[in-house]
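Q: My labmate handed me this sequence with no annotations at all. I'd like to see what the chain might look like in three dimensions before we decide whether it's worth expressing. Could you predict it?
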Amino acid sequence: MPKVTYFSGETFPLEMHKVRIIQKLTLLPIEVRLRAVQDSGYNTFLLQNKDVFLDMLTDSGVNAMSDRQQAAMLLADDAYAGSATFTRLHNKLIEIFGQRYFLPAHQGRAAEHILCKAYVRPGSIVPCNYHFTTWKAHVTEQGGTVVELLKKEGLEVNSDNPFKGNFDVPALEALIAEVGVEHIPYVRMEAGTNLIGGQPFSLANLREVSAACHKHGIKLVLDASLLADNLHFIKVREPEFADASVGEIARAMADTTDIIYFSARKLGFGRGGGIVTDDEVSYKEMRGFVPMYEGFLTYGGMSVREMEAITVGLDETLDEDMINQGPQFIAHIVKTLDEAGVPVITPPGGLGAHVDAMRFLDHLPQEQYPAAALASAIFIASGVRGMERGTMSEQREPDGTEPLADMELVRLAVPRRVFTLSQVNYAIDRLMWLHANRKIVGGLKWVEEPELLRFFYGRLEPIGDWHNELVAKFRADFGDSL
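A: Here is what I predict for the chain of 482 residues:
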């Protein structure tokens, strides 16, 4: 990452790439944006992309491919079995992680499904630093229970702790002693913990977790979907690895784990995923689920063209000049908003900037889904689509009670190599305006509440008339401006 000093004394992220292919965007009038969010049931997942100006919903499958990735897609071998494309991807994973066996899957949640089918049984207890929505759903579907053992400081909204994703190892030891090794099929460590602000763990902590697991003969599974951000933060925040290459850090992480799974929609800038391991027994325990649920063992539900792009994208993941743009843009958003008094998660993590809806809309109870309400309000005010990461993303208990999330966040994801700095600054400006008028924003209630993964396709409606009041205030302040 080059160090650039600006004559003005200000600091801005500096992209280390140029744009060669573009896609036209449309910024619709606020009245049209309101109708769009009403039609979507106040769920940003259900918005039509044609109505969105900046899509900051996720970084999954929407990262920009490089010229090298586009060129590699022309080399794809379409063979159903024994494809040379698979061999190239497999060899690249061996080169990066040093693990001999690879099971392809169409994306990260498919890898989660295979892991849970292979290892989770009724009564299983699966510890993690923090859960992810689809993984938790797979565990519970198999009759298991997720236990979060994040260090308590990981849930501090404002902090200077560089590694808020760290695992509480003494708590893990206590859990093992309480429930018994036989009830713990594996321990899951998530890089760049998604639901608490994309916060990384340290390599030192990963090694401590590994030592505890292996002392008891328990598998350690690494969710490496957000590995790129975690690699960046280890290099810039963990002094021991300041002089290590990103590739050396990745190999050191892999050396501590038994199984690694990933979504290539995030890691590798393509659309796919998979599982790697150096243990032949584990490989054979999971292998049969690939042809059963995904596809043959040499494509696993992926397009071979995407597999070629992922092979190149994995190389680019090890290029610090490529992977630092996301964290730099996120840091810029967080710093600017924080200085303006807009409540955000600090320190900046990966994946996106995370707005703290609990403080932003402190007049709303959690039962009215403040993060979902804020995500809808952001879209109305700006055309920017973010994602709710709060109570709406949880699911009800079997008795119908609703657990309240530890945090109520709106994630403004920063897909890699997609947005310009002027677009990012527009999003920042509209958030500042919305914060100044935050008392207008009211809560939401369910109209259609699915039982499983409700945040993906459930529908809500506003409590009161706050949505129309917000539009009226926008017009009063901005006139005919979009």
